[in-house]
Amino acid sequence: MVLDILGQVFVVTGGVVFLAAAVGLIRLDDPYTRASSVATAAGLGVTLVVAGSVLLDPSVPAAIKAVIAIVLQLVTAAIGGIALGRGAVLSGHPFNRRTDVGELTENEHPER
Amino acid sequence: MSVLTLPFRVAWFALWFTGQVVLSAGAVVKDVFTRGQAATPRVVRLPLTSEHDAHTTLLGMFITLTPGTLTLGVVEDAGPSGQAMLVHCMYDDDAETALASLRDMERRVLTAFSVRGGAR
């Protein structure tokens, strides 16, 4: 019963994270803020939904699969986000007007 | 930093990181769903302490998974490790605040994922 409620809360929270990322995609205005929002949401949203579904129907095999799925999801979402941000820098996409790029020199390009 | 304590150090880091994510997610979600433009985006340069690629990769991943921050890449640096990480932060008031929290995270990543001063 407690697990049921907790599982439902996790699944719904995961959905809200995805919704926030979708709204962010529309409202944010440069590749960096968008990549930031999507990479985080892809990692956390899927994690919450998967963890919630295990709590709703608990079993040892499901828990093992969930742990593997969550680890893979977090790693790939993060690396994907970094790749998007890095690609945008290297291809010279501008930051939005409010961004303070004092630390980034004119011809800065990450070498890996 | 013995191998025996590694699982406990990693577990403690996981707990701390979960807490950090919940804290910063609140700010981001609030900003997305309200009309206000609370974001103050900036790019900061974080000189890296460790030379190990595993540490660099892990730190870059955790920074990206934290709501509001994104790793942009690794560049050459004059510092001791010869490397610095460029990080895009959306919700820090100034560069000093952003760097302070990034340094704290770096210290915790190195503590959790090191074995005898080296990488895993």
Task: Provide structural commentary.
With about 110 residues, chain A is mainly alpha-helical. Chain A has one domain. Chain A is built from 3 helices and no strands. Chain A has helices at about 1-25, 30-55, 60-90. In chain A, helix 2 (about 30-55) runs antiparallel to helix 3 (about 60-90). The longest helix of chain A is centred in the last third of the chain and has 31 residues, at about 60-90. Chain A is elongated, with a radius of gyration of 18 Å. Chain A starts with a helix and ends in a 22-residue tail after the last helix. Chain B has a 3-stranded antiparallel beta sheet with strand order 1-3-2, covered by helices on one side. The radius of gyration of chain B is 15 Å and the shape is flat. The interface between A and B is large, with 40 and 34 residues.
Give the helices and strands, then pairings.
The complex is a heterodimer of chains A (112) and B (120).
Chain A lengths: L1 H26 L3 H26 L3 H31 L22
Helix pairs in contact in A: 1-2, 2-3
Chain B lengths: L5 H28 L8 E6 L5 H13 L3 E8 L6 E7 L5 H18 L8
Antiparallel strand pairs in B: 1-3, 2-3
Helix pairs in contact in B: 1-3, 2-3
Summary, kept brief:
Chain B: One of its GO terms (molecular function) is monoatomic cation transmembrane transporter activity. Chain A has 112 residues and is mostly helical. Chain A has helices spanning 2-27, 31-56, 60-90.
